[in-house]
Q: What sequence folds into this?
């Protein structure tokens, strides 16, 4: 990360453009030699890395959706041809799909800029409530916290009461995780008889993996005295953007190239226009270029009062495509198809709703509860199967009359209102 966190964050636009252009060309050259998939893509498009122009040639590369990445990895395991088989991979993470993601811990500085911008440093003890099991979240956030000097308590997905006890006993000063889980921890603390403001030192929270709704942020600030920050990224490309003290958009990280593109054709859109967030993370292991996150946003070019000169993302305005993020984890149509094969005796649709301060996952099932049908071993068996395949749990089953769910209905419906 060069010489400290500010080394690139205050450079002028031309210097930033030249640096990222140079890194993109080097990645293309490395990818052509090391990645069979990238070599095929470049040969098919006729794009030569040595002649690459950031302004003219970037759009010749395809935007790669998560579903496409899944299909590549299924057809050419484990990485879909995007990784040099001889690469010295330190860790392999897994996300639903499945998607296998190689990482090199020695060079990782993921999320460090975000924590630095939030004011977290050597004086902090931070509760890391992201999962450390299989997925990238826990360890990559952990690495970012250590990079800024913080002491990390790797609490992961332990129950709310255990989290309260850790916050109390260890004098935790900051939290990182999802906003809904922090609210669950606060509610549990109140049930246990604690006054959050008086009894705990935790005053700062950095959130990722799910939206921080304005009403919930206000509650955190007004009722619990918490200074909250949003961090934005994707498991496939790591950290992408983060809030500073001004909380007026998310600064784009210096280690990525971010485009706002037309979801239909992949062409870049002017600043201020709404489009899909497309990300290339500069690295020499995983040659995933122009990854389409499925999130909708727009770029802010105006300078930020904090002094950072990078463009900012104007939050997330919604989703494109069919994969849906629920409580920090993606649920994809391909997973629902696998469920349908396992439980072939029933028709069902998955709905994601918002209830209070958390995501609610509801499955609508045709028929009458408890009706014995081939392929349906009972509600609890279905819920176990759903969690096994989709990682997240079902909150509620809703039984509807036979014939209610048309064959043309989408298998996965996001009913949340993004605002």
A:
């Amino acid at each position: 990360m060069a010489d400290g966190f500010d080394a690139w964050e205050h450079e002028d636009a031309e210097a930033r453009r030249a640096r990222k252009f140079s890194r993109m060309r080097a990645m293309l050259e490395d990818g052509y030699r090391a990645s069979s998939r990238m070599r095929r893509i470049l040969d098919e498009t006729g794009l030569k890395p040595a002649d690459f122009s950031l302004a003219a040639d970037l759009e010749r590369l395809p935007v790669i959706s998560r579903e496409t990445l899944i299909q590549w990895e299924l057809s050419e395991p484990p990485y879909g041809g995007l990784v040099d088989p001889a690469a010295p991979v330190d860790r392999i993470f897994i996300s639903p799909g499945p998607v296998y993601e190689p990482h090199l811990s020695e060079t990782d500085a993921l999320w460090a800029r975000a924590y630095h911008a939030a004011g977290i440093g050597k004086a902090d003890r931070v509760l890391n409530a992201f999962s450390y099991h299989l997925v990238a979240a826990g360890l990559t956030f952990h690495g970012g916290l250590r990079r800024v000097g913080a002491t990390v308590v790797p609490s992961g997905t332990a129950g709310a009461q255990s989290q309260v006890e850790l916050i109390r006993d260890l004098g935790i000063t900051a939290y990182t995780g999802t906003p809904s889980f922090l609210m669950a921890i606060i509610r549990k603390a109140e049930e246990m008889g604690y006054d959050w403001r008086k009894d705990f030192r935790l005053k700062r929270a950095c959130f990722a993996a799910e939206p921080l709704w304005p009403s919930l942020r206000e509650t955190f600030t007004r009722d619990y005295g918490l200074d909250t920050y949003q961090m934005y990224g994707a498991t496939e490309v790591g950290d992408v953007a983060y809030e500073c003290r001004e909380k007026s958009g998310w600064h784009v990280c210096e280690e990525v190239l971010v485009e706002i593109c037309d979801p239909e054709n992949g062409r870049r859109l002017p600043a201020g226009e709404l489009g899909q967030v497309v990300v290339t993370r500069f690295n020499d292991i995983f040659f995933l270029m122009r990854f389409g996150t499925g999130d909708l946003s727009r770029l802010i070019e105006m300078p930020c009062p904090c002094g950072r000169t990078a463009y900012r993302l104007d939050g997330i305005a919604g989703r494109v495509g069919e994969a849906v993020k629920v409580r920090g984890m993606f649920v994809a149509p391909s997973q629902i198809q696998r469920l349908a094969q396992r439980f072939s005796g029933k028709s069902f649709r998955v709905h994601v709703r918002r209830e209070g301060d958390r995501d609610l996952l509801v499955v609508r099932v045709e028929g009458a509860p408890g009706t014995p049908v081939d392929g349906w071993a009972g509600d609890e068996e279905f819920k176990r199967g759903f969690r096994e395949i989709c990682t997240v749990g079902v909150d509620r089953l809703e039984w509807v009359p036979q014939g209610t769910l048309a064959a043309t209905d989408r298998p996965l419906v996001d009913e949340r209102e993004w605002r």
In short: The domain at 324-414 is CATH 3.30.300.30 (GMP Synthetase; Chain A, domain 3).
